UniProtKB/TrEMBL annotation:
Sample GO molecular function, one term: RNA binding
PANTHER family linked: MITOCHONDRIAL RNA PSEUDOURIDINE SYNTHASE, RIBOSOMAL LARGE SUBUNIT PSEUDOURIDINE SYNTHASE C
Protein name, as recorded: Pseudouridine synthase
Record key words, sorted: Isomerase, RNA-binding, rRNA processing
Disordered: annotated span: 1-25
Record-annotated RNA-binding S4 domain positions: 44-106
Signal sequence bounds: none
Family indicated by similarity: Belongs to the pseudouridine synthase RluA family.
Record function comment: Responsible for synthesis of pseudouridine from uracil at positions 955, 2504 and 2580 in 23S ribosomal RNA.
Principal EC category: isomerase
Gene source species: Marinobacter fuscus
C-alpha cells in the first residue's frame, strides 16, 4: 500500500469558537460564571450589573453577548434593561478581560489571626469572628480580604465562598460556605429572612426605649470623590432595623440592632437617622462627636456582629452563635462604665 509523503508541515490548529475567545497579550479569558443576585444587587438593570462585574470589557461586547442570548437569567434570554431580582441566577459567558496584576499572598500572621477567629466549623460551613479593619473580600485598592486569607490558609479547600458581607470596620460573625449546596441553602435562608442577625453598637446620646424600629428606605449614592454612601430617601429600597437599648452610659448608649433587611450601611444610617450615630463612624458621625469619642480612647467603628441564629445546612438543626468583643471595643465600654460610676457617685 502506497503512503503519501510527509510534507513536514504541522496540521492547522482547530479554530476556537466565538464562545471561547482567544486572549491577546495582557488579557485573560474567563470561564462561564454563575452569579446569584443578592438583596443589594436586586433592582439593578442587567447591563449595569454586567458592566460592574466585567470591568475592562468594552460596552459593545457586553451588549453583544446579551443580544446573542449568551447571557441568561434563570436560564432564559433577557434584554439589557431587564431588572434583576433577589435570587435570580445570572449566567455570564466566557469573555476576554484585561489580566489582573499578580496579587500579593496574605502573610502567615494574618492567616493565623483569621484561622484563630473561626468560632464554628463543620463539613458544610464555617463562621468567623471577623476582626475590625479586615474587609470581607479584596478590591477597591485592597489586595485581599477575609475570603482570600481563608483560601490562602486552606489551599486544599475546593470551595470557599462568602454567604454574606460585613463592612470593613465592622467586627463580628461572618458565614462562609464550604459547599455550593450550603451556599445556596444559606443564601435562600437569608432571602426568606429565616436567619436572625444581632449587632451591638455603641451610639451617641441616650437611646429612647420608644425607638424600637426604624423602617426608612435607603438609597445608595456616590460622593463627588467617588466614595459610596447611603442616605434615607423615598427613592430608596425598603429597609427595616429593630432596636433595643442594652445599657446607658454618660453620653452614649449600647444598643442591640437586628436588621430585617440587608442593605449597605443599614444599621449605621438608621442609627444616625434616629439621632444616634454609631461612635467612630467616619461616614455618618460629625467631626465634633468623632473628636469627643477619640478623647475617651475610641479607636474603631463601634459596631459588632454579636450573634447569629440559623439552621444548619444538611441537618436543619438550629444553632445560635455569639462572638465576644475585641479588645478596643471592650476597653471603650470599660472606660464608659468607670465614668458612669463617677457620675453616679
Amino acid at each position: 500500500m502506497s503512503r503519501k509523503p510527509d510534507s513536514g508541515k504541522a496540521a492547522p490548529a482547530p479554530s476556537r469558537s466565538a464562545t471561547h475567545p482567544v486572549p491577546a497579550k495582557g488579557q485573560v479569558a474567563t470561564g462561564v460564571q454563575w452569579v446569584t443576585v443578592d438583596e443589594d444587587m436586586a433592582g439593578q438593570r442587567l447591563d449595569n450589573f454586567l458592566l460592574a462585574r466585567l470591568r475592562g470589557v468594552p460596552k459593545s461586547i457586553v451588549y453583544r453577548i446579551v443580544r446573542k442570548g449568551e447571557v441568561r437569567v434563570n436560564k432564559g434570554r433577557v434584554k439589557p434593561d431587564a431588572r434583576l431580582s433577589s435570587g435570580d441566577v445570572v449566567r455570564i459567558p466566557p469573555v476576554v478581560q484585561k489580566a489582573r496584576a499578580e496579587q500579593p499572598v496574605p502573610g502567615a500572621r494574618v492567616q493565623q489571626v483569621v484561622e484563630a477567629a473561626v468560632v464554628f466549623e463543620n463539613d458544610d460551613m464555617l463562621v468567623v469572628n471577623k476582626p475590625s479593619g479586615i474587609a470581607v473580600h479584596g478590591g477597591s485598592g485592597l489586595s485581599f480580604g477575609l475570603i482570600e486569607v481563608l483560601r490562602s490558609a486552606r489551599p486544599d479547600a475546593r470551595f470557599l465562598e462568602l454567604v454574606h458581607r460585613l463592612d470593613r470596620d465592622t467586627s463580628g460573625l461572618v458565614m462562609v460556605a464550604k459547599k455550593r449546596s450550603a451556599l445556596r441553602f444559606l443564601q435562600d435562608e437569608l432571602r426568606n429572612k429565616r436567619i436572625r442577625k444581632y449587632y451591638h453598637a455603641l451610639v451617641a446620646g441616650s437611646w429612647s426605649d420608644k425607638v424600637r424600629r426604624v423602617a426608612e428606605p435607603l438609597l445608595r449614592y456616590e460622593m463627588p470623590n467617588g466614595e459610596r454612601r447611603v442616605r434615607v430617601s423615598e427613592e430608596g429600597k425598603e429597609s427595616l432595623t429593630l432596636f433595643s437599648c442594652l445599657q446607658a452610659f454618660h453620653g452614649y448608649s449600647l444598643v442591640e440592632a437586628s436588621p430585617v433587611t440587608g442593605r449597605t450601611h443599614q444599621i449605621r444610617v438608621h442609627s444616625a437617622w434616629a439621632g444616634h450615630p454609631i461612635a467612630g463612624d467616619d461616614k455618618y458621625m460629625d467631626d465634633a462627636s468623632q473628636k469627643a469619642f477619640r478623647a475617651i480612647g475610641g479607636q474603631r467603628l463601634m459596631l459588632h456582629a454579636r450573634a447569629l441564629e440559623f439552621c444548619l445546612p444538611g441537618s436543619g438543626d438550629s444553632l445560635r452563635l455569639e462572638a465576644p468583643y475585641d479588645e478596643p471595643f471592650a476597653k471603650v465600654l470599660e472606660e464608659l462604665s468607670k465614668r458612669n460610676g463617677k457620675h453616679d457617685g
